[in-house]
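Bumping my old thread because nobody answered last time. Still need a sequence for this structure:
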């Protein structure tokens, strides 16, 4: 199990073989090294984002954007044209982090993957349910804001509303959204202000290189989100 610990997430299923991949070690690993590995090992486009400045007099880390009430300090894009700045070139990625070594690692969605975004409590329930059924999962992240994001094939953002309707849920009735083209996820080991780092609940490995289609996960996620809503 990753650094998230057994108290919050189910153990990784035993039928998935061990994998020596080093994406990412999370503790003590430089952001640049993790970003390069995402591009090299997963062929994900990567973008450097904002970063945390030194603590102020109240012990609060400031975001480099300078906004006093930044909703995601140190974990968001720094310009309007960020979509076109994301790259899979490890040479360019190294240059990005040479300029801003504390920059957040951002992964654009809608390219090589989309992400299904649910509350952490619902995500843990769905994760356990899918593992019992041996559903093939992709990587899964957990945010310090207590959200979980399940990586799936691109195109999920367009499919999910209809998939939810087929299951009897109006799309806005439960807290399940899909992040697709024009959006991004924040990748480990980026920290979000004082709240802590993004972590892997299910890290990228050779076993989950081929991502599932959203349709394979939506039923379990919707069921878990519906239980939380009630």
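Sorry it took so long. Here it is:
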């Amino acid at each position: 199990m990753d650094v998230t610990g057994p108290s919050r997430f189910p153990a990784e299923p035993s039928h998935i073989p061990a994998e020596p991949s080093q994406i990412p070690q999370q503790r003590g690993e430089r952001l640049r090294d993790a970003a390069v590995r995402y591009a090299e090992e997963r062929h994900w486009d990567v973008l450097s984002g904002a970063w945390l400045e030194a603590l102020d007099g109240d012990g609060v880390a400031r975001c480099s954007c300078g906004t006093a009430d930044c909703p995601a300090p140190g974990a968001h894009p720094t310009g309007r044209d960020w979509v076109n700045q994301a790259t899979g070139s490890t040479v360019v990625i190294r240059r990005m982090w040479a300029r801003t070594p504390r920059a957040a690692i951002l992964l654009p969605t809608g390219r090589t993957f989309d992400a299904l975004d649910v509350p952490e409590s619902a995500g843990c329930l769905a994760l356990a349910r899918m593992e019992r059924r041996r559903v093939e999962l992709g990587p899964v992240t957990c945010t310090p804001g207590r959200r979980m994001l399940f990586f799936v094939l691109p195109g999920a953002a367009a499919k999910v509303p209809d998939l939810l309707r087929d299951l009897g849920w109006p799309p806005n009735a439960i807290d399940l959204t899909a992040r697709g083209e024009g959006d991004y996820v924040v990748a480990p080991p980026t920290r979000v202000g004082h709240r802590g780092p993004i972590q892997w609940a299910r890290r990228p490995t050779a076993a989950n290189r081929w991502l599932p289609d959203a349709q394979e996960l939506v039923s379990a996620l919707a069921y878990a989100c519906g239980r939380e809503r009630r």
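Confidence is low (pLDDT under 50) at residues 1-7, 13-28. Let me know if any region looks off to you.
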